[in-house]
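All the exercises in this workshop are built on plain-text protein records. Instead of coordinates, the fold is spelled out as a row of discrete tokens. Once this layout is familiar, the rest of the handout is easier to follow. The record below serves as our worked example for the rest of this section.
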Amino acid sequence: MWQPTLLGGGTAATARGDSVMAGVTGRWATLDTLRRLWPFVAPERRRLVAAFLVTAALTAVEIATPVLVGFVVDGLLSGLAAGGENVLASSSERALLVALFAAAPLRGFLLARQRTLEGELGQWVTARIRKRIWVQVRRLPVAYTDRRGPGRLLLRFIGDAKAIQRMVGPGLVRLSQDLLVVTGVLVALALLNWRMSLAVLPLVPVQALIFIRLNPRLRKESRARRRRRSRLSAYIAGRASSLAIARPALGKPAEMDRFNSANRGIASRGTRVAETSGTILGLSAAAVALSAALVLVVAIGEAQEGRLSAGTFVTYYALLGLLAPIFQRVALANRSFQEGQISVDRITQTLAQAPEVAPEGVPDLVVEWGTLVFEGVSFRFAEEAPVLAGVDLVARRGEIVAITGANGSGKSTLLDLVLRFKEPSAGRILVDGQDIAAVHPESLRAQVGFVPQRPPLFDGTLVENVTISAAGEASAADLERAARQSGADEVVARLAEGWETKVAEGRRGLSQGERVRLALARALLADPPILLLDEPAAALDAAAEQALAERLRELARTKTIVVAGDRLPGSLVADRTYRLEGGRATEVGTAEPEPERSGAAVPVLATKA
């Protein structure tokens, strides 16, 4: 299967990716951008070649048209001067008129093909980029994607991909056309009258100087605007995902100030981008107008010396007229190119991140009892104070172990460490005596069921939501068992379409308790020996809490269960309770031994303080 390799993986690639956001400045920036894009463009060679051939033909037609007009004008004036009644009587003059008429529909056909091919080229190149990003995101460490957040990652698929599409499709194809037209026009002008062309030649280096001087500023301001758009996107995505909770705070002055600051930052940087782009456009237009005026001065002298015919003058000015819109288009397209270069930098950085790949020969985790042990586990983010500092705790099969503590005490981090979404700074975590850092991470996650703090709903049916994390095809028996153990079967039974009911994040129809049941069914589908739940009782009513507690007690007969939360259900009583405070875990309660299960009813647990 073809895989584009923008940058290699590993530490060196990551280091290169970290520096790539600065972009390659200077004269080679565009060439470097095109080099990094080539692996995605290469499979579209046929379309690319076809687009360039059509563009070359279109360029020839556009240059030939004013030349034909010039010949017709000279023939017309010569005929009038000779006093002929039919000034276009010769076959050659009629052929010129036929060629002019034929050029019109031919130009229309070539233009339509060019636009179609450039559109196809841009669409398929960006589709390949989006696929490559998605493959990469699926393999990246969870810690990386958590740091970026959904808002910033979404921009890679939409905003950055769209910018690259504009650069690859209309950008490359039309830029090639403009370069061909400029080259062809300059050659034609020199052949028509080399003295007049001396007034035009300085136009090219002047235009180049304008871009060289102002492009770095345009790139800098465009990059700054992109960063502010990313921040606003992350802010809106975060607040919108929990709108019911965040709504009361969104109208407060502090929140409005945060939004207004990000919003004004985008507008301010966008204004500077528009100002710089406008300056480039204005200077380009002024340079073309000045060249046209100089050409007119030289043309007067040439006409006085008898070296310039009327037809040649018309042709010359018509060709010169082709240059003006080209330089204006280049000035406008230059802005899209700068945006595209920034997007390539950002996507390259994402693709340069080292994926989560276990070394060859790493053994799989083998679970017999499901005993989970933390030995002196510490964790910190970069140079910040430790979130966890020397945590020791034990969870065994048949127990419900509760992890409590204030908000921000490290409860969710502790669960992430078990799943290896994060790696401890010190200490180790054992499952049945095996250090989880020394086993294959996917085999570990296959043995650990996880119900997150905010159970997501994926766009699709209920059955797709429950089976989405299944390593293989889930059997009907497995689905039925997981639904029964979690209570999801009761949710499905009340819906007219049953398992085929369509759901999506943000769509009404399921209560928080029902979402928790579906998430629990998803975690139980593979019948894991260890089950982790993060804030499972958040936003549940008393009846839902009671039902959850009863299900967890039943599951604890055969599983190791760890429940983390600021507030655990009053009806959920743990066999062992640890409190996180100051980065350390203190055991604060152990339940009384349970009565024999054969006769007496199993009580709903109560922690013994």
